Amino acid sequence: MNTEQLLKRESFIEMTARSRAQALLDPGSMRELIGPFDRMRSPWLAMQGVVTQSDDGVVVAKGSFDGQPYLVLAIEGAFQGGSLGEVGGAKIAGALELAAEDNRNGIPTGATILFETGGVRLQEANLGLAAIADIHSAIVDLRRYQPVVGISAGTVGCFGGMSIAAALCSYLVVTREARVGLNGPAVIEQEAGIAEYDSRDRPFIWSFTGGEQRFQTGLADACIEDDSALMRTTLRELIVRGVPTKHRSEQSQAFLACLDAVDASVQATPEMVRSIYQKGLSL
């Protein structure tokens, strides 16, 4: 992208969760379910002296995409690092379940999830984990009928249990600014030590968990520039592809074989990881 294109483009990353949902759906079609005025706040944060948000950081947007019924579930990274608790998780899982029910009733409703999340909300612990498990189950149910598309744009990234949700999606779109991983950099540093993993070393972090690396290692289906119009175009292309013959999560044996090829006695490099995955997944 040259300077002129950069100045003309509308950044998807800089948008709020609500604006992102609006940018993806057909103009004028979006209506929000369980929105801020419904005051579905987390009952647990206030008990712990944490400021709540009236939508619990999750936007459930229903509308249409190219005229077809569509659902966009957007996590707001600016609230509690996009962490998911009982209420936000239930909003996503419930909406996906309703979309699956629509399909069973002959209404072809698709869905996209915008992952901007550090994973489970620690203040809600088991309740948050249970909600994320419900999301996993709902994605697997809906993807039988329609492709479920995940998008991780940045800047929070997608970590913890929600990274598993991203892996369960039919397709995953990332930008170079995105990061996707089961554990966040700070957690790995805490457990492995700064000599092994320095969470302040941004080039190092992005070289292993950044969007470009995830695309090159087969864990994402598209890595695109930060452009709102391009994001919508990419989403259209993936919807047109339809439900994959075999979802990525159904290729676990191939990924496990790649992990077996890792030599843990030497320091891994991004190039080494790419080589192992590209070779292993092409067999």
Topology (elements, then pairings):
Blueprint: H1 3-8, H2 17-24, E1 31-33, H3 43-47, E2 58-65, E3 68-75, H4 86-104, E4 110-114, H5 125-142, E5 148-152, E6 158-159, H6 161-168, E7 171-175, E8 180-181, H7 185-192, H8 202-209, H9 211-216, E9 222-224, H10 228-241, H11 252-260, H12 270-282
Parallel strand pairs: 3-4, 4-5, 5-7, 6-8, 7-9
Antiparallel strand pairs: 1-2, 2-3
Helix pairs in contact: 4-5, 5-6, 11-12
Describe this structure in words.
This protein is of the alpha/beta class. It has helices at 3-8, 17-24, 43-47, 86-104, 125-142, 161-168, 185-192, 202-209, 211-216, 228-241, 252-260, 270-282, and strands spanning 31-33, 58-65, 68-75, 110-114, 148-152, 158-159, 171-175, 180-181, 222-224. The chain has a 7-stranded mixed beta sheet, with helices on both faces. Strands 6-8 form a two-stranded parallel ribbon. β2 (58-65) and β3 (68-75) form a beta hairpin. α4 (86-104) runs parallel beside α5 (125-142), α5 (125-142) runs parallel beside α6 (161-168) and α11 (252-260) crosses α12. The longest helix is centred in the middle third of the chain and has 19 residues, at 86-104. The mean pLDDT is 93.
